[in-house]
Design brief:
Glutathione S-transferase Yfyf (Class Pi), Chain A, domain 2, alpha/beta, Glutaredoxin, 212 residues, 8% strand, five-stranded mixed β-sheet, homodimer
Chain lengths: 212, 212
């Protein structure tokens, strides 16, 4: 069975849980809480020396890191990864945008303002940069969605799943979505699609990381 | 004919030129110099509202942004994009790493220290962060290359091309490669592969951006 090392409150991990739920693929969830240092145990560092989640483990033991690479791997051959060569490249275009220009700002703001206890009081100077870069990324999305229902092919693809994960909780990082009506409409459309699950969803078989 | 909007000194643009040279694909190069604001002209913003290069234009006029998405699009069906599903996902894993954890630090350091006139004197506080993040990214590469000749499948793929572009000029951004012998060995192997071209290479048909 597939095994997913995942942090429940992590947007990058949620992407993969959401896709697995949509595909109806059974998987074992292994909780790794970065805030409790569970990504720095010897058990986990053997799996991923970078100490990052999500991490996908295939039945034979092969391991795959990077949330968006995992999405593409799992979605191959399904309607969530376009079959057309150019549309598939466009989906990748938005997934690279997400990891380069969107997640580093929007997820960082939420991580420090919402998830880290006392993080709001730190008020590091980076918060201004995250706000600026986060708003710039949302402006790019807003313009693109002005004439489209979804990011590629006017239907839900892995590009939407990648961008939805951090965007739908952006306000937890004090990034106001009010100026972005197209983005808000798209968030509602994504959440209304078949087999959608929220960030809190988890399969019944979740376990802790087994000891060495 | 394919048209590539490219900045000659940009690592992200170089990735695509290197791949096109390897594939022997004819293309027209259109120079866009960000340092002269040529990415902010009405002519270019119609093509890419984000004002970024590289940008690939297909013969029918369709446009594709994001260097790594362009690499995957162009390499499909060639030996530079693995055919095996898992190996292809691993190539993406390294390309997402590059855009998330490598390029933002290593390319930014080179941009401000080498390319921008007077940028070295600015000494913004971000330089310390770029050094720290750049060294962390190189350490990840160094460990991975300890047992491998190339990033995926022990042969050259688009993952190597993506990572090579900024790494081989990292020292122009004051990031010392001496502590990373595996990375230096890999750089030499990439440069020794068939049909390699350096960053200075350009096709003979380069043009300036046509006016509206």
């Amino acid at each position: 069975m597939l095994r997913l090392y995942s942090m429940q409150s992590s947007g990058n991990s949620y992407k993969v849980r959401l896709l697995l739920a949509k595909l109806g693929l059974p998987f074992r969830l292994v909780d790794i809480d970065l805030l409790r240092g569970e990504n720095r145990t010897p058990e986990f560092l053997i799996k991923n020396p970078e100490g990052r989640v999500p991490l996908l483990e295939l039945p034979g033991g092969r391991l795959l890191a990077e949330s968006n690479a995992i999405l593409v791997y799992l979605a191959e051959g399904t309607s969530l990864l376009p079959e057309d060569r150019f549309a598939r490249a466009e989906a990748l275009r938005w997934m690279f945008f997400e990891q380069h220009s969107h997640e580093p700002a929007i997820a960082a703001a939420r991580f420090w303002l919402k998830l880290v206890r006392g993080g709001r009081d730190l008020r590091t100077h980076d918060i201004d940069r995250w706000m600026e870069e986060g708003h710039a990324a949302l402006a790019v999305m807003e313009r693109h969605l002005g004439r489209r229902s979804f990011f590629v092919d006017n239907r839900l693809t892995v590009a939407d799943i990648a961008l939805y994960a951090h965007t739908h909780v952006a306000e937890e990082g004090d990034i106001d979505l009010a100026p972005f009506p197209n983005v808000r409409g798209w968030l509602a459309r994504v959440a209304a699609e078949a087999d959608h699950v929220g960030m809190e969803w988890r399969p019944e078989n979740a376990t802790a990381m087994p000891a060495l």
